[in-house]
Every structure is written in structure tokens, then in C-alpha cells.
């Protein structure tokens, strides 16, 4: 049974090809993203806009986080240290400030790893930007959202990107009282200029800058060489495909239909 097709575009780099043999999934460090606003939305204390008394707010915050058994419950939007900071701020606001609570949340979110995918193979900008002007390649994955969510509930999650014309702000109260919504906003919001990507990202709550065994719910389906990939790299790609037991194809640029490409079986004569 086929899942949803997701695509990962890769540059013309032999290391990116040989890496696939291990059938692992790489999770990047978000601090190395090329968009400085990605994974770095502003978090502020905007609670004064609500009209709620600060003392009542702190009391509610303490009662909420004090009821969480961090050892037994999975609250990925909180870290143990963030919970500790919230409690300290709620009880002793002079010794633990809102700014320190916010800073701890941001530090915690930056420990997550991220892998990015696109929904469309026939993406001219993606082939040009991410796949070295068609000299690179693309990996097609079969993604099964329900299986992925069920099998990886403790350490991985899927987030489709929301594209926005304005940079959204996250309030401290959102982090405390609706943390999962605030988390999604923080890690899955990008500028409208990136909307051509149609991005879906997988987030690793425990590791970044490393590869892990291919999680259940996602698997490689096909390798697609760019239309200008060199013969040596095509041979390497075919070898990896044979090793993994998956199809290997190549893109062909169609001049009769501008900006629309098609893929076909990779010829053994290359």
C-alpha cells in the first residue's frame, strides 16, 4: 500500500548518495537553517493585553504545571527545566523573570532536530536551488501519517508548514496554557516567500545533527537523478537503488512544455 509521497531534494554530492545505503534519516540542526527567522519566532510576555490580573495568572500557571508528572507524561512542549522555571516565576516573580522563562523555552526548542520534505517533485525552483541546477537528485518517500504518529509518539512528530505574510508573535501565556499550539507555531511557521516549497517537516525532539534508523511510517520509494547529473553519479545512484531494492529514475526536461519536467527509467547505458 502506498502512502503519501514526500520529496527530499539533494545537491550533487557523492556523500549524499552513499549515505543512503544505510537507510537512515538525517535530522538537521535548525540553527544552521538558511532562513534566520525559521525556528526563531519572537516570544514575548503579552499577558497585559488580556486584562487578567498577573497574580491570578501566575497562580493558574503554577497549578497547571505542578499537576504534571514529567516522568510519566509526554509533554514535548515542556522541558523539565522549563517547568521548573515556570514554577519559580509563578511563586517568586522577583527571583525568576518572564524573560528567563521565555529564554529557557527557546533554548529547549533549539535542541530539536528537523528534516524537511516537499510535496511536489515537479518543482523547478527546488531542482534549481536544492538539487544543484538538476545536477543533484531527489528522494521520494512513502509517508504513512497515522503509522508514523502511532509508532513514534515519544520522540518524533510531523508538522506541515504554515506560510505567513507577517511574523507571528508567541505569548508566554500560550507557552504555558496551550504549549502544543505554541510549539507548532514556533517550529512550523515560515515567510510566504517560501510557500513554493510546500514543506512538511519531521521534528526529532531528542536529537539533532545526526542520523537515526529509518522510523516506522516512512520509507524510501524511489531515487530520481536530476536531468544534468553526471554519468558517474548516476551509476552511484543506481548502485544505491539496487542495494535498497528501490526504483531509480532520471528527470527529463521537456522543451515542448516549458517549466514542466517528467521522469523516466534510468538507462543502464549511462
Automatic annotation (TrEMBL):
Pfam families recorded: DUF2971 (PF11185)
InterPro entries according to UniProt: DUF2971 (IPR021352)
Domain of life: Bacteria
Name under which the protein is recorded: DUF2971 domain-containing protein
Higher taxonomy: Bacteria, Pseudomonadati, Pseudomonadota, Gammaproteobacteria, Oceanospirillales
Amino acid at each position: 500500500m502506498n502512502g503519501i509521497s514526500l520529496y527530499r531534494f539533494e545537491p550533487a554530492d557523492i556523500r549524499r548518495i552513499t549515505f543512503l545505503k544505510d537507510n537512515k534519516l538525517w535530522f538537521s540542526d535548525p540553527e544552521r537553517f538558511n532562513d534566520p527567522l525559521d525556528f526563531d519566532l519572537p516570544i514575548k510576555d503579552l499577558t497585559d493585553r488580556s486584562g487578567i490580573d498577573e497574580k491570578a495568572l501566575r497562580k493558574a500557571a503554577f497549578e497547571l504545571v505542578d499537576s504534571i508528572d514529567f516522568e510519566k507524561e509526554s509533554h514535548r512542549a515542556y522541558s523539565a527545566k522549563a517547568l521548573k522555571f515556570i514554577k519559580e516565576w509563578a511563586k517568586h516573580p522577583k527571583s525568576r523573570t518572564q524573560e528567563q522563562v521565555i529564554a529557557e523555552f527557546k533554548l529547549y526548542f533549539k535542541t530539536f532536530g528537523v528534516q524537511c520534505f516537499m510535496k511536489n517533485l515537479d518543482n523547478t525552483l527546488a531542482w534549481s536551488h536544492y538539487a544543484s541546477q538538476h545536477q543533484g537528485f531527489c528522494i521520494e518517500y512513502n509517508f504513512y501519517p497515522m503509522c508514523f504518529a502511532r509508532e513514534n509518539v515519544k520522540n518524533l512528530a510531523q508538522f506541515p508548514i504554515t506560510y505567513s505574510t507577517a511574523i507571528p508573535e508567541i505569548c508566554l501565556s500560550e507557552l504555558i496554557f496551550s504549549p502544543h499550539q505554541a510549539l507548532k507555531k514556533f517550529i512550523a511557521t515560515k515567510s510566504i516567500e517560501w510557500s513554493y516549497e510546500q514543506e512538511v517537516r519531521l521534528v526529532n525532539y531528542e536529537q539533532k545533527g545526526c542520523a537515526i534508523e529509518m522510523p516506522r511510517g516512512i520509507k524510501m520509494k524511489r531515487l530520481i537523478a536530476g536531468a544534468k547529473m553526471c554519468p558517474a553519479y548516476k551509476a552511484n545512484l543506481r548502485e544505491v537503488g539496487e542495494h535498497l531494492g528501490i526504483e531509480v529514475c532520471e528527470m527529463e526536461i521537456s522543451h515542448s512544455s516549458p517549466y514542466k519536467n517528467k521522469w523516466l527509467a534510468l538507462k543502464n547505458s549511462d
